[in-house]
Amino acid sequence: MLASKLARSVVNPKGAALLRHYCSDYTKHFLMPSAARLVALNHLDASNIVGTGLGGRIMRYDVVAFMEKKQSPKKAAKAAIPKPATPVAQQANFVDEAVDGEKESRMQFDQQVKREIPHAYLSEEVDMKRLNAFISKVNAVVNPTDVAVKAACNALCRQQPLQSVAVNVCVSAGWNDALSFTIPEVQKKSLLAIHEAIEAGKKTGKSMPLSGAITVCSLENVMSGGGILSSQQEVGTITLGSPYSTVRVSEDGEDKIERCVMEKVHFAYNALKLDEISGNEVMSAFKSFMENPEFLME
């Protein structure tokens, strides 16, 4: 039937131009017959018409829509509505301080290690009530940081059979600064010896290269250590958060409320050294030693 229509159009001289346009553009732009007739009669360029039919075919209504869009006058651009000026905030009283070369290189190294070593994170709440009572009872100069260093060493020895454990310590040193150093063979030291080693490290006034298997971070107003490890051999970093007071109902069945001091502890562990189960074991053992510090005296 299509051939008969084309033959009739050839006989009609007026349809010759339509036939040529139809044969060339239909195969190229997939014009339907009714659309091809409109394109030829109106001298349109089929390549500018977007077809919405099956397989991208140009339908008759596509040509009609193209012609209406072409004939409609362009809408005048709307004048931009002026926006209210943004109020200028008062500038804060910040002062940029230059970072010395040693501190800058340490920060760059920390960020490099953090990118290279995959981390995983755990957190626990430690009840500090018994620890505070223990420190008062021994009547010594030890503090929670000293106990945390010993607890981290014992927790790591319980999870891994290590002959010697060196612990990295990161403590506050004045405003907005910290000192880091390593205490060797912590498993052989008492709490008092650990305290003296930390005080000696503070007196040096500068950070030392770290070589410990685990790090205890005790900084003022720091709740999370951020997961920065000193090397790929380090197991992880334990960060002591600021203690806070809370209340709870006694577990002896009586309606008695007691006040306790809790401390949030974060453990960023090296995923190349520990899996999730091992990380939880170290964290659980650390919490147990912190809540039962008398076992650290053995």
CATH topology of the largest domain: Chloramphenicol Acetyltransferase
Q: Tell me roughly what share of residues is in helical segments.
A: 25-40%
CATH superfamily of the largest domain: Chloramphenicol acetyltransferase-like domain
- Low-confidence runs of at least 5 consecutive residues: 1-11, 13-27
CATH architecture of the largest domain: 2-Layer Sandwich
Mean pLDDT: 78
- In total, the number of domains comes to 2
From the helix content, strand content and strand pairing, which structural class follows?
A: alpha/beta
* Count of distinct strands: 7
Main sheet? 7 strands, mixed
**H/E series:** HHHHHEHHEEHEEEEH
In whole angstroms, how far apart are the ends? 104 Å
CATH C-level of the largest domain: Alpha Beta
Beta content: 15-25%
Pfam families: E3_binding (PF02817)
Protein name: Dihydrolipoyllysine-residue acetyltransferase component of pyruvate dehydrogenase complex (E2)
Keywords: Pyruvate, Transferase
GO molecular function: acyltransferase activity
Walk me through this protein's architecture.
This protein has 9 helices and 7 strands. By secondary structure, the chain is of the alpha/beta class. Strands 1, 2, 3, 4, 5, 6 and 7 form a 7-stranded mixed sheet that branches. A hairpin with a 5-residue loop joins strand 2 and strand 3 (178-183). Mean pLDDT is 78; it is low at 1-11 and 13-27. It comes from Blastocystis sp. subtype 1 (strain ATCC 50177 / NandII). Keywords: Pyruvate, Transferase. One of its GO terms (cellular component) is pyruvate dehydrogenase complex. InterPro entries: CAT-like_dom_sf, E2/Pdx1, E3-bd_dom_sf, PSBD.
